[in-house]
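User: For documentation purposes, I need each entry recorded in a consistent format: the amino acid sequence on its own, followed directly by the corresponding structure tokens. There are two entries in this batch. Please keep commentary to a minimum and don't merge the entries.

Assistant: Recorded as requested. Entry 1:
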Amino acid sequence: METYPEKTCSIERLVTHPKLVAAAKAGLKTQQRRDGVYAWPGETFALEDITFIVTRLERQRLGDLTDEHARAEGYPALESYRSMILRMHPGMTWNPDSLVWVHTFEARKDT
């Protein structure tokens, strides 16, 4: 079993923006990058009437992000994702060496 660091925030805060909630519910958003750990693999969270399960947690450099990663975040391309992040966090710079936590998730299939 892999060991993960302590959480820095609650899982309920992982995906909160209405546009991103809608994208996750539509299956267009499958990842959320955060500065800290909000959930460990196997944990679940609900977005309105859909339950999601975190399937992976890993570190990633901002400089390693691609358009594919941006689409998994619910954005059409890396530049639009980058622009949104910088608008949301005034004063932040996009440092390619900065590390973020990638939370990968999917809608839980009821059995």
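Entry 2:
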Amino acid sequence: MIPRFQTRNIAKIIQSTEQKEGVGARVRRSIGSVALPEFSPFLMLDHFKVEEGAGFPDHPHRGQETVTYMLKGAFDHEDFTGHRGRINAGDLQWMTAGKGIVHSEMPVPGEVNEGLQLWVDLPSEKRLCEPRYQELKSDDIPKWRGDNNVVVKVIAGRAGNIKSPVQTYTKTWYLDITIERGGQISQIIPHNWNAFIYTIQGNASISSHQVGPFHTVVLDLAGEGVTISNESKETVRMVLIAGERLDQRQRTYQHGPFVMDDQAGVMRTIHDYQTGTNGFERARDWRSEIGSRMTG
């Protein structure tokens, strides 16, 4: 049964165009672009495609979380704490950078590698927490199946009576929604959370608007949820992402991969990274093995 509620209207629709990022990679960026510089608590959303010989070699983070969800192919990961692994199509890595991580993210050779990376701001009191990882294989991400040709992978938060095991410092829901022809879903969104939809495949009807692939649909705050349907002949796929608004209680200052409360905090972070102190001690002499695929 589809619940009845006040539907959120669409505030803005942004088409994501490809641009260069990292070394040889291509991304479609919506959040973090000129059209939508920030959408608290979200700092960036990239839909990336990376071929062999390209990637994201050794680089730092502090003060945010990076959420990598693979759509096709596979990516290897390695960091200066000794953590390493591989995420394949449908797998998730939720990395909390906290006080500091230096890592490398590289495509598996011979694969077509495509995925989404979302950056989530941290509450001020958690910016300098210990780094951590939550990784789920595709089969371990719970699924909710609707009555009308709908399947939802519950990456974070909940859909129907299904809840994700992922624990987040910033309250966040992340749903991968697939709708076959004639299907429809009405998804609740928590009150006063910012929410958006990124379309991956097909033409979806979102709050009575037809939206094609590679668009970010920003939803109004007013309302209790959103209704999405597929009136076309092909499969529709998208992610619905919502989060608690941190801009109501804190400031955010971002400089590249560093996110703090103000410019002074970012300057201290740059100093810590350059001197290998206050969380970056292991960065002094560390070089990743997978990064050498590019650097030799």
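Summary note for entry 2:
The chain has one domain: 10-248.
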